[in-house]
Amino acid sequence: MDVLLDVAGLPRSTFFYHQARLLAPDPQADLKAAVTGIFEKSRARYGHRRVHTELVKQGWTVAKKTVLKLMRLLRLVCKVRQKKRYNSYQGAQGVVAPNLLNRKFDADSPNEKWVTDVTEFSVGDRKLYLSPVMDLFDRQIISYAIGTSPNLELTNSSLRGALATLEKGQKPLVHSDQGFQYQHVSWRRLLTDAGAVQSMSRKANCYDNAVMENFFGHLKEELFNRVRFLGVDALEAALHEYIHWYNTERISTKLKGLSPIRYRAHVLAA
């Protein structure tokens, strides 16, 4: 060894110092394990901010930058979302409602403001459509319908499911885009019979329904863009699983680091 050290021009003390460092236990081993555990539990859907939130819940005191650094070191990558939007506007089909929501995406109580839309998925040569209804109080998907056609029954079915959750006296504002389904008399009749108020985005203005667009963006990146589905049946099963996970487990920084259902329970119990 002395000969090798002489050839390398490396002092013995320097060699043994670095050797000891390599053999020493990793002081961040437990933190790395916690970060990896949270990331894997989220099915690789959490970025460093949500991982940091979960770490704080577990009692860790650590900076967000440290979590980001460790995730890069461990190659735990949450990919950037890719937006692909289904456009349900097909020209004037019925009655257009005013934009009563007016981008006020906060609600003080459950069933005060709902938003809805339709998104499209392509699996081979077939398509699948999802029509969810979201409560802006906690961003929970309170009802949804899945089908192979973006027809009236798809959207009306999701609305009927949401209306069935209302308690006496609750009359939500229901916001959508100007898709033909939402202009149709059958949609408007469901709202009228429930005492709900209709609101619509301005034509071709996705920002008027930004919260639902944001949900679709997360859904596509956290589920659809990560898996190669062999058929629409497999995708439909995965959508059911994702929405359940989204409502019950997926934390949101806007909801004090809680999932929608846990946030609602927390607020209503206060």
Shape: elongated
Return residue spans where pLDDT drops below 50 for at least 5 consecutive residues.
none
Radius of gyration: 25 Å
Beta strands, count: 6
Distance between the termini: 69 Å
Helix/strand-derived class? alpha/beta
Helix-strand pattern: HHHHHEEEEHEHHEHHH
**How many helical elements?**
11
Largest sheet: 6 strands, mixed
- Approximately how much helix is present in the residues? 40-55%
Q: Quick check: average pLDDT?
A: 87
Beta-strand content: 5-15%
The oligomerization state is: single chain
Can you offer a commentary on this structure?
It is built from eleven helices and six strands. It is α/β, with parallel strands linked by helices. Strands 1, 2, 3, 4, 5 and 6 form a six-stranded mixed beta sheet that branches. The chain is elongated and about 90 Å long.
Keywords:
alpha/beta; six-stranded mixed β-sheet; 44% helix; 13% strand; elongated
Concise synopsis of the structure shown:
The protein has helices at 2-8, 12-23, 29-41, 48-57, 64-73, 152-163, 180-183, 185-194, 210-222, 232-248, 260-269; strands at residues 113-116, 119-123, 126-135, 140-147, 173-176, 197-200.
Question: What's the layout of helices and strands?
Answer:
Blueprint: H1 2-8, H2 12-23, H3 29-41, H4 48-57, H5 64-73, E1 113-116, E2 119-123, E3 126-135, E4 140-147, H6 152-163, E5 173-176, H7 180-183, H8 185-194, E6 197-200, H9 210-222, H10 232-248, H11 260-269
Helix pairs in contact: 3-4, 4-5, 6-8
